[in-house]
C-alpha cells in the first residue's frame, strides 16, 4: 500500500502536524514491508526536511513501541494526550506509565527540535 502525504506551506501546515501524520501512518497495524509512506513537500521547505530527519530518529523508538503495545491512537501527539486517562490501576500500570513517560520524553525532545527549526527557518513578521 502506498500512502502520500502532501504539504505545501510550513506556515499553514505546521511541520509537527505533518510529521505526526506521517508517524501515525507508518505505525498502522499493517505489514511494514507492504506499506510505503511518502511525504511530498511542494515548498521544498528546510524546516519540513529537518523535521522529517528528526522524526526518523524518533520513529526508531515510536514504531516498535506502537507495534509491540498495540498503541491507539498512533499519532504521537494524540497518544500522549491520553497518558493519564488510559492508565488503569492494575499490576502493569506502573510499567505502562514508565514506558509512556519515556516515549513522551523522546517525543518532547523531537517536538523541541522542530520548534527550534521553526524559529530558524520560518520568516517572522
Task: Tell me about this structure.
- The protein is mainly α and 125 residues long.
- The chain has one domain.
- Helices cover 57% and strands 10% of the residues.
- The chain has four helices and two strands.
- Strands 1-2 form a two-stranded parallel sheet.
- α1 packs parallel to α2 and α2 runs antiparallel to α4.
- The chain is globular, with a radius of gyration of 15 Å.
What is the helix fraction of residues, given as a range?
55-70%
Q: Please tell me how large the radius of gyration is.
A: 15 Å
The biggest beta sheet, please?
2 strands, parallel
| Uncertain residue segments | none
List the domain count as a whole number.
Answer: 1
Amino acid at each position: 500500500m502506498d500512502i502520500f502525504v502532501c504539504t505545501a506551506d510550513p506556515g499553514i501546515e505546521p511541520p509537527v502536524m505533518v510529521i505526526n501524520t506521517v508517524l501515525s501512518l507508518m505505525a498502522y497495524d499493517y505489514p511494514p514491508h507492504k506499506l510505503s509512506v511518502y511525504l511530498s513537500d511542494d515548498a521544498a521547505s528546510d524546516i519540513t526536511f529537518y523535521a522529517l530527519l528528526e522524526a526518523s530518529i524518533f520513529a526508531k523508538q515510536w514504531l516498535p513501541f506502537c507495534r509491540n503495545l498495540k498503541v491507539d491512537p498512533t499519532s504521537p501527539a494524540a497518544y500522549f494526550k491520553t497518558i493519564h486517562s488510559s492508565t488503569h490501576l492494575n499490576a502493569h500500570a506502573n510499567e505502562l506509565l514508565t514506558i509512556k513517560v519515556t516515549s513522551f520524553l523522546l517525543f518532547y525532545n523531537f517536538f523541541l527540535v522542530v520548534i527550534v527549526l521553526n524559529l530558524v527557518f520560518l520568516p517572522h513578521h
